[in-house]
Amino acid sequence: MSMFILYSNAATTPPALSLDFATGALPSGTTLTRASTGTYYNASGILSTAANNAARFDYNPSTLALRGILIEPTRTNLIPTSVIPPITDTGTTGNWKTWKAVSTAAATTS
Hints:
Blueprint: E1 3-6, E2 17-20, E3 38-41, E4 47-50, E5 57-59, E6 66-69, E7 87-93, E8 96-101, H1 104-109
Antiparallel strand pairs: 1-2, 3-4, 5-6, 7-8
């Protein structure tokens, strides 16, 4: 269950703020901002992509039970050009398949 409650000082006073994020919708009066798209499991258990600034209510893909709102911290990709280098098949040695990385220049000229 995803719930945020801000309590007052007095034990008998009701909470000053109570937000329930386990309903599948943002509580009235709340907004969400996110600078990029994000993935989540929808109510059908399918991995989906949410647009910028759209809330992601995550579901368990096996049981389809609502897990609540999905909020993640900001991240920075430290290796922005993290791609798999091109490879070529160099044949088979015994029962093993062998591969060799190819430089980008060699891959574009061949």
